[in-house]
Amino acid sequence: MQRNISGVERVLRLGLGLGICTAVLVLGHGNLADSVLMLVGLFLVLNGLTARCYLWRWLGINSFRRSSGCALNTHNRSKI
């Protein structure tokens, strides 16, 4: 899968994910809500590290822009 997250979004996801994971580890009570929050935090960290988001792909969102200045990908139109 190709990158679909911009650099700014990567930093935001990484920071938010690390913040959520830290908060759950420090303030968590070990219940189901904490487990779900930890999972969400880990997914955000992985999205930030890999610059790929399967939810964005499924929704057709792509915030990653190549440096060539062309926003449309005309090479793979038939593969949609």
Kindly describe this structure.
The protein has one domain. Helix content is 57%, strand content 0%. It has helices at 7-27, 32-50, 54-59. The two termini are 13 Å apart. The relative contact order is 0.21.
Question: What value does the average pLDDT take?
Answer: 85
Number of domains: 1
Question: Low-confidence parts lasting 5 or more residues at pLDDT below 50?
Answer: none
Q: In DSSP terms, counting alpha (H) and pi (I) runs of 4 or more, how many helices?
A: 3
Helices and strands, with pairings:
Blueprint: H1 7-27, H2 32-50, H3 54-59
Helix pairs in contact: 1-2
Brief rundown of the structure:
Helix content is 57%, strand content 0%.
List keywords for this structure.
single chain; mainly alpha; 80 residues
